[in-house]
Protein backbone atom coordinates (compact mmCIF):
# COMPACT_ATOMS: atom_id res chain seq x y z
CA UNK A 1 0.00 0.00 0.00
CA UNK A 2 2.80 2.45 0.88
CA UNK A 3 4.54 1.98 -2.44
CA UNK A 4 1.36 3.01 -4.24
CA UNK A 5 0.51 5.78 -1.80
CA UNK A 6 3.75 7.74 -1.81
CA UNK A 7 4.10 8.45 -5.57
CA UNK A 8 0.47 9.53 -5.71
CA UNK A 9 1.09 12.08 -2.98
CA UNK A 10 4.24 13.35 -4.68
CA UNK A 11 2.62 14.06 -8.02
CA UNK A 12 2.77 17.70 -9.15
CA UNK A 13 -0.29 19.86 -8.83
CA UNK A 14 -1.73 22.84 -7.08
CA UNK A 15 -1.04 23.09 -3.34
CA UNK A 16 -4.73 22.64 -2.57
CA UNK A 17 -4.76 19.40 -4.57
CA UNK A 18 -1.71 18.14 -2.69
CA UNK A 19 -3.34 18.93 0.64
CA UNK A 20 -6.60 17.29 -0.41
CA UNK A 21 -4.70 14.16 -1.46
CA UNK A 22 -2.84 14.12 1.85
CA UNK A 23 -6.09 14.56 3.75
CA UNK A 24 -7.71 11.64 1.91
CA UNK A 25 -4.69 9.41 2.45
CA UNK A 26 -4.55 10.25 6.18
CA UNK A 27 -8.25 9.48 6.46
CA UNK A 28 -7.66 6.08 4.85
CA UNK A 29 -4.96 5.27 7.40
CA UNK A 30 -7.25 6.07 10.33
CA UNK A 31 -10.18 4.20 8.81
CA UNK A 32 -8.06 1.11 8.14
CA UNK A 33 -6.69 1.13 11.70
CA UNK A 34 -10.12 1.58 13.33
CA UNK A 35 -11.32 -1.51 15.25
CA UNK A 36 -14.90 -0.43 15.84
CA UNK A 37 -14.21 1.08 19.26
CA UNK A 38 -10.69 2.51 19.00
CA UNK A 39 -7.75 2.99 16.66
CA UNK A 40 -4.63 0.83 16.76
CA UNK A 41 -1.33 2.58 16.07
CA UNK A 42 -0.54 -0.09 13.47
CA UNK A 43 -2.24 -3.32 12.39
CA UNK A 44 1.09 -5.14 12.53
CA UNK A 45 3.50 -3.95 15.24
CA UNK A 46 0.95 -2.37 17.61
CA UNK A 47 -2.37 -4.28 17.35
CA UNK A 48 -3.95 -2.97 20.59
CA UNK A 49 -5.01 0.45 21.91
CA UNK A 50 -2.20 2.63 23.27
CA UNK A 51 -2.87 5.47 25.70
CA UNK A 52 -1.10 8.55 24.39
CA UNK A 53 -1.47 7.31 20.81
CA UNK A 54 -5.24 7.43 21.26
CA UNK A 55 -5.05 10.97 22.60
CA UNK A 56 -3.12 12.19 19.54
CA UNK A 57 -5.32 10.11 17.25
CA UNK A 58 -8.46 11.66 18.73
CA UNK A 59 -7.13 15.15 17.99
CA UNK A 60 -6.83 14.25 14.30
CA UNK A 61 -10.00 12.16 14.16
CA UNK A 62 -11.94 15.20 15.38
CA UNK A 63 -11.16 16.79 12.00
CA UNK A 64 -12.91 13.90 10.26
CA UNK A 65 -15.53 12.52 12.61
CA UNK A 66 -15.91 14.24 16.00
CA UNK A 67 -18.17 11.53 17.39
CA UNK A 68 -15.62 8.84 16.54
CA UNK A 69 -12.91 10.97 18.19
CA UNK A 70 -15.06 11.09 21.32
CA UNK A 71 -15.48 7.31 21.16
CA UNK A 72 -11.69 6.89 20.95
CA UNK A 73 -11.21 8.57 24.31
CA UNK A 74 -14.30 7.00 25.86
CA UNK A 75 -12.99 3.53 25.02
CA UNK A 76 -9.58 4.26 26.53
CA UNK A 77 -11.00 5.74 29.72
CA UNK A 78 -13.43 2.85 29.94
CA UNK A 79 -10.41 0.76 30.96
CA UNK A 80 -9.36 3.17 33.72
CA UNK A 81 -8.42 1.64 37.07
CA UNK A 82 -10.28 2.58 40.25
CA UNK A 83 -7.16 4.30 41.60
CA UNK A 84 -7.41 6.68 38.63
CA UNK A 85 -4.57 5.44 36.45
CA UNK A 86 -5.09 5.18 32.70
CA UNK A 87 -3.13 2.12 31.53
CA UNK A 88 -0.73 2.45 28.65
CA UNK A 89 -2.24 -0.49 26.73
CA UNK A 90 -5.84 -1.72 26.53
CA UNK A 91 -5.70 -5.20 25.06
CA UNK A 92 -8.01 -6.44 22.33
CA UNK A 93 -9.07 -9.97 23.36
CA UNK A 94 -9.44 -11.04 19.73
CA UNK A 95 -5.71 -10.53 19.04
CA UNK A 96 -3.56 -13.67 19.54
CA UNK A 97 -1.27 -13.57 22.57
CA UNK A 98 1.86 -14.01 20.45
CA UNK A 99 1.08 -10.97 18.26
CA UNK A 100 2.59 -8.57 20.79
CA UNK A 101 4.90 -8.79 23.79
CA UNK A 102 4.39 -8.18 26.67
CA UNK A 103 0.95 -9.69 26.16
CA UNK A 104 -2.01 -9.77 28.59
CA UNK A 105 -0.80 -13.00 30.17
CA UNK A 106 2.40 -11.22 31.19
CA UNK A 107 0.73 -8.18 32.78
CA UNK A 108 -2.12 -10.20 34.39
CA UNK A 109 -3.80 -6.91 35.29
CA UNK A 110 -7.20 -8.25 36.35
CA UNK A 111 -5.51 -10.49 38.93
CA UNK A 112 -2.24 -8.85 39.93
CA UNK A 113 -3.78 -5.38 39.77
CA UNK A 114 -7.07 -6.17 41.52
CA UNK A 115 -6.06 -4.48 44.78
CA UNK A 116 -5.07 -1.35 42.84
CA UNK A 117 -8.42 -1.25 41.07
CA UNK A 118 -7.72 -2.87 37.72
CA UNK A 119 -10.90 -3.74 35.78
CA UNK A 120 -12.00 -7.34 36.20
CA UNK A 121 -13.36 -7.66 32.66
CA UNK A 122 -10.73 -5.79 30.60
CA UNK A 123 -7.06 -6.76 30.36
CA UNK A 124 -4.58 -3.89 30.34
CA UNK A 125 -0.97 -3.18 31.14
CA UNK A 126 -0.18 -1.84 34.62
CA UNK A 127 1.97 1.16 33.71
CA UNK A 128 0.90 4.51 32.26
CA UNK A 129 1.86 6.97 29.52
CA UNK A 130 2.04 10.78 29.30
CA UNK A 131 -1.22 12.47 30.38
CA UNK A 132 -2.16 14.28 27.18
CA UNK A 133 -5.78 13.10 27.43
CA UNK A 134 -7.47 16.19 28.88
CA UNK A 135 -5.81 18.34 26.24
CA UNK A 136 -7.10 15.91 23.61
CA UNK A 137 -10.61 15.86 25.08
CA UNK A 138 -10.78 19.65 25.01
CA UNK A 139 -9.57 19.75 21.39
CA UNK A 140 -12.16 17.13 20.45
CA UNK A 141 -14.89 19.18 22.11
CA UNK A 142 -13.82 22.34 20.27
CA UNK A 143 -14.00 20.53 16.92
CA UNK A 144 -17.79 20.17 17.29
CA UNK A 145 -19.10 21.75 20.52
CA UNK A 146 -22.74 21.14 19.62
CA UNK A 147 -22.26 17.40 19.14
CA UNK A 148 -20.10 17.26 22.28
CA UNK A 149 -22.78 18.95 24.35
CA UNK A 150 -25.54 16.83 22.82
CA UNK A 151 -23.76 13.65 23.88
CA UNK A 152 -22.66 15.02 27.27
CA UNK A 153 -19.08 14.24 26.29
CA UNK A 154 -17.31 16.62 28.68
CA UNK A 155 -19.65 15.89 31.59
CA UNK A 156 -18.81 12.19 31.28
CA UNK A 157 -15.10 12.72 30.68
CA UNK A 158 -14.47 15.24 33.44
CA UNK A 159 -14.65 12.94 36.52
CA UNK A 160 -12.47 10.31 34.83
CA UNK A 161 -9.86 12.85 33.74
CA UNK A 162 -9.89 14.49 37.17
CA UNK A 163 -9.32 11.06 38.80
CA UNK A 164 -6.42 10.40 36.41
CA UNK A 165 -4.78 13.68 37.37
CA UNK A 166 -5.32 13.01 41.09
CA UNK A 167 -3.57 9.65 40.74
CA UNK A 168 -0.53 11.29 39.14
CA UNK A 169 -0.41 14.15 41.65
CA UNK A 170 -0.71 11.87 44.67
CA UNK A 171 0.51 8.32 43.99
CA UNK A 172 3.24 9.34 41.56
CA UNK A 173 4.81 12.26 43.41
CA UNK A 174 7.60 9.94 44.49
CA UNK A 175 10.09 12.79 44.87
CA UNK A 176 7.82 14.89 47.06
CA UNK A 177 8.45 17.99 44.96
CA UNK A 178 5.13 18.35 43.19
CA UNK A 179 5.99 16.49 39.98
CA UNK A 180 4.86 13.07 38.75
CA UNK A 181 7.48 10.34 38.45
CA UNK A 182 7.74 7.65 35.80
CA UNK A 183 8.66 4.13 36.94
CA UNK A 184 9.37 2.47 33.59
CA UNK A 185 10.99 3.77 30.37
CA UNK A 186 7.77 2.98 28.50
CA UNK A 187 5.86 5.47 30.66
CA UNK A 188 7.35 8.72 29.31
CA UNK A 189 6.97 7.27 25.81
CA UNK A 190 10.64 7.77 24.87
CA UNK A 191 11.49 4.13 25.50
CA UNK A 192 15.21 3.79 24.77
CA UNK A 193 16.30 7.42 25.05
CA UNK A 194 19.94 7.79 26.13
CA UNK A 195 18.56 9.81 29.06
CA UNK A 196 17.53 6.53 30.71
CA UNK A 197 20.82 4.67 30.15
CA UNK A 198 22.41 5.33 33.54
CA UNK A 199 19.26 4.49 35.51
CA UNK A 200 18.65 1.35 33.45
CA UNK A 201 22.23 0.19 34.00
CA UNK A 202 21.28 -0.41 37.65
CA UNK A 203 18.53 -2.88 36.60
CA UNK A 204 19.34 -6.58 36.37
CA UNK A 205 17.84 -7.70 33.03
CA UNK A 206 15.45 -10.60 32.78
CA UNK A 207 17.06 -13.69 31.22
CA UNK A 208 16.83 -13.62 27.39
CA UNK A 209 15.13 -17.02 27.33
CA UNK A 210 12.31 -15.74 29.55
CA UNK A 211 10.65 -13.69 26.81
CA UNK A 212 10.24 -13.54 23.03
CA UNK A 213 10.13 -10.20 21.27
CA UNK A 214 7.34 -9.88 18.71
CA UNK A 215 8.40 -6.41 17.52
CA UNK A 216 11.28 -7.79 15.44
CA UNK A 217 8.79 -9.73 13.32
CA UNK A 218 7.63 -6.40 11.88
CA UNK A 219 10.53 -3.96 12.18
CA UNK A 220 14.29 -3.96 11.64
CA UNK A 221 16.42 -4.69 14.69
CA UNK A 222 18.50 -1.62 13.77
CA UNK A 223 15.43 0.57 14.34
CA UNK A 224 14.38 -0.93 17.67
CA UNK A 225 15.64 -1.07 21.28
CA UNK A 226 18.26 -3.75 21.91
CA UNK A 227 17.71 -7.15 23.56
CA UNK A 228 19.49 -5.82 26.66
CA UNK A 229 17.05 -2.89 26.77
CA UNK A 230 14.14 -5.31 26.55
CA UNK A 231 15.53 -7.52 29.29
CA UNK A 232 15.55 -4.52 31.62
CA UNK A 233 12.08 -3.39 30.51
CA UNK A 234 10.74 -6.86 31.30
CA UNK A 235 12.42 -6.93 34.72
CA UNK A 236 10.96 -3.57 35.75
CA UNK A 237 7.45 -4.46 34.54
CA UNK A 238 7.54 -7.87 36.28
CA UNK A 239 8.69 -6.32 39.57
CA UNK A 240 5.88 -3.77 39.45
CA UNK A 241 3.36 -6.51 38.64
CA UNK A 242 4.62 -8.75 41.44
CA UNK A 243 4.03 -5.91 43.91
CA UNK A 244 0.43 -5.55 42.77
CA UNK A 245 1.15 -2.38 40.76
CA UNK A 246 1.24 -0.61 44.10
CA UNK A 247 3.32 2.56 43.82
CA UNK A 248 3.98 2.76 47.56
CA UNK A 249 5.02 -0.90 48.00
CA UNK A 250 7.13 -1.34 44.86
CA UNK A 251 10.89 -0.78 45.40
CA UNK A 252 11.27 1.15 42.16
CA UNK A 253 14.69 0.54 40.61
CA UNK A 254 13.78 3.13 37.97
CA UNK A 255 12.06 6.36 39.10
CA UNK A 256 12.58 9.67 37.35
CA UNK A 257 10.83 13.00 36.89
CA UNK A 258 10.56 13.57 33.15
CA UNK A 259 10.02 17.07 31.70
CA UNK A 260 7.83 15.94 28.79
CA UNK A 261 5.55 13.86 31.00
CA UNK A 262 5.09 16.73 33.44
CA UNK A 263 4.71 19.39 30.76
CA UNK A 264 1.86 17.37 29.27
CA UNK A 265 0.34 17.04 32.74
CA UNK A 266 0.42 20.83 33.13
CA UNK A 267 -0.99 21.52 29.65
CA UNK A 268 -3.74 18.99 30.33
CA UNK A 269 -4.43 20.53 33.75
CA UNK A 270 -5.08 23.83 31.99
CA UNK A 271 -7.37 22.00 29.56
CA UNK A 272 -9.06 20.27 32.50
CA UNK A 273 -9.89 23.69 33.95
CA UNK A 274 -11.69 24.53 30.69
CA UNK A 275 -13.46 21.16 30.75
CA UNK A 276 -14.51 21.69 34.37
CA UNK A 277 -16.03 25.07 33.55
CA UNK A 278 -17.89 23.64 30.56
CA UNK A 279 -19.12 20.68 32.65
CA UNK A 280 -20.38 22.89 35.47
CA UNK A 281 -17.53 22.19 37.91
CA UNK A 282 -15.07 24.56 39.55
CA UNK A 283 -12.03 25.23 37.33
CA UNK A 284 -10.06 27.00 40.08
CA UNK A 285 -8.39 23.89 41.60
CA UNK A 286 -7.07 22.88 38.19
CA UNK A 287 -5.68 26.33 37.46
CA UNK A 288 -4.05 26.36 40.89
CA UNK A 289 -2.53 22.91 40.35
CA UNK A 290 -1.23 23.92 36.91
CA UNK A 291 0.48 26.98 38.41
CA UNK A 292 2.03 24.91 41.22
CA UNK A 293 3.26 22.23 38.84
CA UNK A 294 4.74 24.86 36.51
CA UNK A 295 6.71 26.34 39.39
CA UNK A 296 7.92 22.86 40.40
CA UNK A 297 8.87 22.03 36.80
CA UNK A 298 11.05 25.13 36.53
CA UNK A 299 12.53 24.75 40.01
CA UNK A 300 13.35 21.06 39.77
CA UNK A 301 14.07 20.38 36.10
CA UNK A 302 15.16 23.61 34.38
CA UNK A 303 18.89 23.94 33.67
CA UNK A 304 19.64 27.51 32.58
CA UNK A 305 23.23 26.71 31.65
CA UNK A 306 22.14 23.91 29.31
CA UNK A 307 19.14 25.89 28.06
CA UNK A 308 16.86 22.88 28.38
CA UNK A 309 14.81 20.93 30.91
CA UNK A 310 16.54 17.81 32.26
CA UNK A 311 15.07 14.69 33.84
CA UNK A 312 15.81 14.08 37.53
CA UNK A 313 16.81 10.63 38.78
CA UNK A 314 15.01 10.12 42.10
CA UNK A 315 17.40 7.35 43.13
CA UNK A 316 20.45 9.61 43.03
CA UNK A 317 18.62 12.91 43.42
CA UNK A 318 20.64 14.30 40.51
CA UNK A 319 19.68 15.83 37.17
CA UNK A 320 20.35 13.55 34.22
CA UNK A 321 22.64 15.02 31.59
CA UNK A 322 21.89 14.85 27.90
CA UNK A 323 19.71 16.91 25.57
CA UNK A 324 16.47 15.10 24.70
CA UNK A 325 13.43 16.37 22.84
CA UNK A 326 11.60 15.78 26.13
CA UNK A 327 13.40 18.85 27.42
CA UNK A 328 11.94 21.04 24.65
CA UNK A 329 8.32 19.91 25.07
CA UNK A 330 7.70 22.26 28.05
CA UNK A 331 7.31 24.98 25.40
CA UNK A 332 3.65 23.87 25.38
CA UNK A 333 3.18 24.99 29.00
CA UNK A 334 1.00 28.12 29.27
CA UNK A 335 2.58 30.65 31.57
CA UNK A 336 6.12 29.33 31.18
CA UNK A 337 8.51 32.20 32.05
CA UNK A 338 9.43 34.02 28.84
CA UNK A 339 13.15 33.87 29.58
CA UNK A 340 12.86 30.09 29.77
CA UNK A 341 10.77 29.93 26.59
CA UNK A 342 13.26 32.08 24.64
CA UNK A 343 16.13 29.90 25.81
CA UNK A 344 14.27 26.75 24.73
CA UNK A 345 13.66 28.19 21.25
CA UNK A 346 17.36 29.04 20.97
CA UNK A 347 18.31 25.52 22.02
CA UNK A 348 15.92 24.00 19.47
CA UNK A 349 17.45 26.14 16.73
CA UNK A 350 21.02 25.46 17.84
CA UNK A 351 23.41 22.73 16.76
CA UNK A 352 21.99 20.09 19.11
CA UNK A 353 18.56 19.93 17.43
CA UNK A 354 19.03 21.87 14.19
CA UNK A 355 15.43 23.08 14.01
CA UNK A 356 14.81 24.29 10.46
CA UNK A 357 17.94 22.58 9.08
CA UNK A 358 17.02 18.92 9.63
CA UNK A 359 13.74 17.03 9.38
CA UNK A 360 11.33 17.79 12.22
CA UNK A 361 12.87 17.72 15.72
CA UNK A 362 15.45 15.02 16.52
CA UNK A 363 14.65 13.01 19.62
CA UNK A 364 18.21 13.37 20.89
CA UNK A 365 21.20 15.69 20.64
CA UNK A 366 22.65 15.54 17.11
CA UNK A 367 26.14 16.25 18.46
CA UNK A 368 26.16 13.53 21.13
CA UNK A 369 28.12 10.27 20.74
CA UNK A 370 24.92 8.46 21.89
CA UNK A 371 22.94 9.85 18.93
CA UNK A 372 21.64 7.22 16.47
CA UNK A 373 19.41 8.61 13.75
CA UNK A 374 17.74 5.28 13.04
CA UNK A 375 17.15 3.70 16.45
CA UNK A 376 13.75 4.57 17.87
CA UNK A 377 14.15 7.37 20.49
CA UNK A 378 17.96 7.67 20.34
CA UNK A 379 17.85 10.27 17.56
CA UNK A 380 15.03 9.84 15.00
CA UNK A 381 12.47 12.61 14.60
CA UNK A 382 8.92 11.75 15.60
CA UNK A 383 5.73 13.41 14.42
CA UNK A 384 4.03 13.66 17.82
CA UNK A 385 6.92 15.50 19.47
CA UNK A 386 7.18 17.74 16.39
CA UNK A 387 3.47 18.54 16.80
CA UNK A 388 4.03 19.40 20.47
CA UNK A 389 7.06 21.59 19.73
CA UNK A 390 5.11 23.28 16.90
CA UNK A 391 2.33 24.07 19.36
CA UNK A 392 4.85 25.44 21.84
CA UNK A 393 6.62 27.59 19.27
CA UNK A 394 3.29 29.07 18.20
CA UNK A 395 2.29 29.68 21.81
CA UNK A 396 5.45 31.65 22.52
CA UNK A 397 5.40 33.75 19.36
CA UNK A 398 8.07 31.94 17.35
CA UNK A 399 5.79 31.95 14.30
CA UNK A 400 8.40 31.63 11.50
CA UNK A 401 9.90 28.55 13.15
CA UNK A 402 6.41 27.13 13.76
CA UNK A 403 5.42 27.75 10.13
CA UNK A 404 8.50 25.95 8.84
CA UNK A 405 8.00 23.00 11.20
CA UNK A 406 4.35 22.67 10.15
CA UNK A 407 5.28 22.53 6.46
CA UNK A 408 8.11 20.08 7.16
CA UNK A 409 5.78 17.77 9.09
CA UNK A 410 3.18 17.77 6.32
CA UNK A 411 5.81 17.16 3.65
CA UNK A 412 7.44 14.33 5.60
CA UNK A 413 4.09 12.68 6.32
CA UNK A 414 3.20 12.90 2.61
CA UNK A 415 6.59 11.75 1.34
CA UNK A 416 7.04 8.77 3.69
CA UNK A 417 3.52 7.34 3.62
CA UNK A 418 2.91 8.36 7.25
CA UNK A 419 6.04 6.77 8.70
CA UNK A 420 6.36 6.17 12.42
CA UNK A 421 9.45 8.42 12.50
CA UNK A 422 12.17 9.74 10.18
CA UNK A 423 15.95 9.92 10.10
CA UNK A 424 16.66 13.59 10.85
CA UNK A 425 19.31 14.28 8.19
CA UNK A 426 17.94 12.31 5.24
CA UNK A 427 14.25 12.42 6.12
CA UNK A 428 14.02 8.72 5.29
CA UNK A 429 10.96 7.09 6.82
CA UNK A 430 11.78 4.55 9.51
CA UNK A 431 9.78 2.10 11.58
CA UNK A 432 6.20 1.29 10.59
CA UNK A 433 4.34 3.00 7.72
CA UNK A 434 0.68 4.06 7.81
CA UNK A 435 1.18 4.96 11.46
CA UNK A 436 -1.96 6.33 13.06
CA UNK A 437 -0.73 9.33 15.03
CA UNK A 438 1.33 10.52 12.06
CA UNK A 439 -1.82 10.52 9.93
CA UNK A 440 -3.93 12.07 12.69
CA UNK A 441 -1.56 14.92 13.47
CA UNK A 442 -1.12 15.65 9.76
CA UNK A 443 -4.90 16.08 9.61
CA UNK A 444 -4.78 18.50 12.51
CA UNK A 445 -1.97 20.54 10.94
CA UNK A 446 -3.81 20.58 7.60
CA UNK A 447 -6.84 21.96 9.37
CA UNK A 448 -4.91 25.00 10.55
CA UNK A 449 -3.65 28.06 8.70
CA UNK A 450 0.09 28.80 8.86
CA UNK A 451 -0.78 31.23 11.68
CA UNK A 452 -2.14 28.35 13.75
CA UNK A 453 -5.83 29.25 13.49
CA UNK A 454 -8.44 26.64 12.51
CA UNK A 455 -8.95 26.64 8.74
CA UNK A 456 -12.41 27.13 7.31
Automatic annotation (TrEMBL):
Domain Mannosylglycerate hydrolase MGH1-like glycoside hydrolase: 46-438
Pfam families (UniProt xref): MGH1-like_GH
GO MF term (any one): Glc3Man9GlcNAc2 oligosaccharide glucosidase activity
Any GO BP: protein N-linked glycosylation
SUPFAM superfamilies: Six-hairpin glycosidases
InterPro entries referenced in this protein's UniProt entry, alphabetically: 6-hairpin_glycosidase_sf, 6hp_glycosidase-like_sf, Glycoside_hydrolase_63, MGH1-like_GH
Key words, A-Z: Glycosidase, Hydrolase
Signal peptide coordinates: none
PANTHER family in UniProt: MANNOSYL-OLIGOSACCHARIDE GLUCOSIDASE (PTHR10412)
Family designation: Belongs to the glycosyl hydrolase 63 family.
Protein name (database record): Mannosylglycerate hydrolase MGH1-like glycoside hydrolase domain-containing protein
Naturally occurring in which organism (per UniProt): Actinacidiphila glaucinigra
Amino acid sequence: MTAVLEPALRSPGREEDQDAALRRAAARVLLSNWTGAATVPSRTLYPHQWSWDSAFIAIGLARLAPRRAQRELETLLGAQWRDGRVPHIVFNPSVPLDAYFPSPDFWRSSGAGAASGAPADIETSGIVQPPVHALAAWQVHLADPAESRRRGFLRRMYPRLAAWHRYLAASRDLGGGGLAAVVHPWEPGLDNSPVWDAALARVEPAPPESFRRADLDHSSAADRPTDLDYGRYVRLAADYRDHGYDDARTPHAFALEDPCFNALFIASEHALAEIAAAAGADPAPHRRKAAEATAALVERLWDPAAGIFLARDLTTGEAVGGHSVAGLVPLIVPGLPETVARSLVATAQGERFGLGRVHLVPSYDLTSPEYDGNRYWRGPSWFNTAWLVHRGLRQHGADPAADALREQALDDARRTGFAEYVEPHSGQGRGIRRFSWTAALALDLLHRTPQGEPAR
